[in-house]
Amino acid sequence: MTRRPVRVAIVDSGVHIEHPHIEGHIAGGVAIDDHGREQAGYIDRLGHGTAVAAAIREKAPDAQLYAVKVFDRTLSTTMTGLVAGIDWAIRSGIDVVNLSLGTSRAEHEAALSAVVARARAAGTIIVAARSDGGVRWLPGSLPGVLPVELDPKCPRDRFVAIDIDGVVVFRASGFPRPIEGMPPERNLNGISFAVANMTGFVARALESAPATLGELVRTLLAACA
């Protein structure tokens, strides 16, 4: 039996499908406004979501990418909009949700814990930042999310896994796909792209058919052993 392509939702600023790193390879998407309402169109006006999509596509070129636009003119949204974007991905049968975003505000933990639980029940894996610069991020620090941290020394084609208080945490490079003629340090970089790079590795691992978060973690650990 042939497995269908892995579906990855990029919850971000949308995607510019004509960018040379994308080349039209977006399977679909939606825009979500601050009130959680679905809107037509997901063009990226900021460039962040496009760079995230490019990093994922580089590592998992056979994956089907879906743009879930929750940022418009700035890299900010409401919790209502974010949760609605993740719920759209769950309803759409997405395998992996890339969250190159997060919040440190503890008052949002309940809402994010609830949507993480819905994702797990549906078999949708969320990849998100666990911490950065000593700051705990949500939902990446919640149980049931594949947690990512930045490793500035990690090559872009690799990842590492460490144990932190009994939790497996994955670390990856914070640099996106290179742009010809631009020095890496002048390009976008940071924890957002550590998450995106790790999502690419996750999507590639899912092609070998592990179905649960635990199975996926074991597959990734074997890959970096």
If you had to describe this structure to a student in words, what would you say it looks like?
There is one protein chain. This protein has helices spanning 48-59, 79-91, 109-122, 191-206, 213-223, and strands at residues 7-12, 28-32, 38-39, 64-69, 96-99, 125-129, 131-132, 135-136, 146-150, 159-164, 167-172. The longest helix has 16 residues, at 191-206. By secondary structure, the chain is α/β, with parallel strands linked by helices. The radius of gyration is 16 Å and the shape is globular. The protein has a nine-stranded mixed sheet, sandwiched between helices. A two-stranded antiparallel ribbon has the order 7-8.
- Could you describe the largest sheet, including whether it forms a barrel? 9 strands, mixed
Helix content class: 25-40%
Report the order of strands and helices. Answer: EEEHEHEHEEEEEEHH
| The CATH homology group name | Peptidase S8/S53 domain
Question: What is the chains' assembly state?
Answer: single chain
User: Helix- and strand-based class?
Assistant: alpha/beta
Distance between the termini: 29 Å
Q: Let me know the number of strands.
A: 11
Under CATH, the topology is which? Rossmann fold
Instruction: State which percent range the strand residues make up.
Output: 15-25%
Report the CATH C-level class.
Alpha Beta
Query: What are the low-pLDDT stretches, counting only 5+ consecutive residues below 50?
Result: none
Mean pLDDT, to the nearest integer, reads: 92
- Taking strands numbered 1, 2, ... along the chain, how are they ordered across the largest sheet? 3-2-4-1-5-6-9-11-10
At CATH level 2, the architecture is: 3-Layer(aba) Sandwich
